[in-house]
Amino acid sequence: MKRALIITLAGLAITTSATVFAAGDAAKGKTLTATCTACHGADGNSVNPDWPKLAGQKEEYIIKQLTDFRSGARVDATMSPMAKSIASDDDIPHIAAYFASQKVKPGTGDVKLVKEGEALFKGGKMSSGVTACSACHGVTGQGNGKAKFPKISDQHAKYLVKQLHSFKAGKRTNDAGKMMQNIATKMTDADMSAVAEYITGLHD
């Protein structure tokens, strides 16, 4: 029943988040990312675990997040003004195409937490109603571009935990159908840490 609900919500996310952008030009996007590189790295591989890796991320997801930062649907003290400084909405697909075309550098998870994290990622946690991450993000964490579900494999564990806490606290609310908010609310700090350590070491 819960799996059917997730699949239904995933389909809803595809049909209701229908903002249309022209196809991005990665070469043009590279020329537009000068201000992005200070935090995210020239190739989208940030070295600071507080900031996400954008290399290899789904274009559709990057477009949505930049658009949400510009509109105020998602708020962050650093990213909101940066996104609003982009000269035109027309530049967003090019920036997204550039980062999507880059190769992400592998992460390494804490071996003490990986086994527990793997169980949560693949099977969820029935005792507290936590849905398996793989239901939306895929078994290898590659995400779903059409549904705007991000690629999460190889992502910094610290950043992942930060986002889960933001969803749980209601500080981040730009998820379709409150899917991530509802899941994160049921997760303990230990759950978040364990699954994040598994995800950061999850490779293609």
CATH architecture of the largest domain: Orthogonal Bundle
Note the total helix count: 11
Average pLDDT rating: 92
Percentage of residues in DSSP E strands: under 5%
Structure commentary:
With 204 residues, the chain is an all-alpha fold. It has two domains: 22-100, Cytochrome c-like domain (Cytochrome Bc1 Complex, Chain D, domain 2); 106-200, Cytochrome Bc1 Complex, Chain D, domain 2 (Orthogonal Bundle), CATH 1.10.760.10. The protein contains eleven helices and no strands. Helix 4 packs antiparallel against helix 6 (92-100). The model is unreliable at 4-21 (pLDDT under 50).
A few lines on this structure:
The protein is mostly helical and 204 residues long.
What are the defining features of this structure?
Cytochrome Bc1 Complex, Chain D, domain 2; 2 domains; mainly alpha
List the helices and strands and how they pair.
Blueprint: H1 2-16, H2 26-31, H3 37-40, H4 59-71, H5 79-84, H6 92-100, H7 111-123, H8 134-137, H9 157-169, H10 179-185, H11 189-200
